[in-house]
Design brief:
This protein is mainly alpha-helical. Helices cover 78% and strands 0% of the residues.
Length: 302
């Protein structure tokens, strides 16, 4: 048994944890839109402050616990290199690109592009992780993509800058999903340590790039409340829980659960942003729901 193997959640618990995290992340899209529009925050700077503050919180937690400090000392050079790459791809590139995309075009459009992540993960997962997808999973991921496309059919408000950023986010999202699964399934480093180190690396790069491109921001009190909630709850806590779920879920499973955010974002946008899905959107929601369900069936745990 590998180190921390006994701390792996059950399969059902991992699914529940991942769904909770996707809900928190879905609320982030509404909060990000408020921050970009109402508070006039710049996208890269917004992302940098959010993940920088979250990294500080997580680092403080790691340093306060002896067992976590000792686990940091046991990280070898190869694992540290993996965490470095994960931080750059998952936080700097992926999150930075998503903020830029949301700032330049409707959030629904970016969500649509990111919904293709399960298909990319399924395609590369077998080669990189040795996790072969069943025919049922392939049908499920195809339905997820088809449902997403159906939901957002019509005028998507595409812009060149927004689409380029969304496509960069899609590639980084798929790559980080595979790498995150690889790092966490080894179960040699606690999830909170994985999150703290990789997020700290990614946030540092975001701060440098954001500061150089957008300058020093002026942040209002309301904006600080949004950023603090995003950093502590939707980032520090949520990403730690997500890494915990990855100890049990396969890459295709986690990507499929991640795609339930389409449904959640649609509902939240309907309630808080007055964006009604319409008949076509409801069809898309059903297809996505069925697709995600299919990805959970017939999983053989390794």
């Amino acid at each position: 048994m590998t180190v921390l193997e006994e701390n792996r959640p059950s399969h059902l618990s991992a699914i529940a944890i991942a769904l909770l995290v996707t809900f928190l992340w879905s609320t982030s899209w509404v909060l990000i839109r408020w921050g970009l529009d109402s508070e006039s925050l710049e996208p890269l700077t917004f992302a940098a402050i959010r993940y920088g503050l979250a990294a500080v919180v997580l680092t403080g937690w790691v340093l306060s616990r002896r067992s976590l400090r000792e686990s940091v000392g046991r990280i070898d050079r190869r694992m540290m290199r993996n965490l470095l790459v994960l931080g750059i791809v998952f936080y700097s590139v992926n999150q930075g690109a998503q903020f830029v995309a949301i700032d330049n075009q409707p959030a629904a459009t970016t969500s649509l592009i990111l919904s293709l992540t399960p298909l990319m993960v399924a395609g590369f997962g077998a080669a990189t992780l040795g996790e072969r997808s069943s025919s049922r999973q392939w049908v499920g991921t195809a339905l997820v993509a088809l449902g997403a496309w159906s939901y957002f059919a019509g005028d998507l408000g595409v812009t060149t800058a927004g689409m380029v950023a969304a496509l960069v986010g899609l590639a980084a999202n798929a790559a980080s999903g595979l790498l995150g699964r690889h790092v966490n399934r080894l179960a040699v480093v606690p999830p909170v340590v994985v999150t703290a180190i990789s997020m700290g690396i990614g946030a540092a790069l975001l701060i440098i790039v954001g500061g150089a491109a957008e300058g020093v921001p002026t942040v209002s009190g309301r904006a600080w409340l949004i950023i603090t909630w995003l950093a502590v709850v939707n980032t520090a806590l949520a990403f730690s829980l997500w890494n915990l779920s990855l100890r049990r879920l396969s890459a295709v499973e986690s990507a499929g659960i991640n795609n339930t955010m389409l449904i959640q974002i649609a509902a939240l946008a309907w309630i808080f942003l007055s964006e009604s899905p319409g008949a076509t959107g409801l069809v898309g929601i059903v297809l996505v729901s069925v697709g995600v369900f299919l990805t959970q069936l017939g999983i053989k745990q390794r």
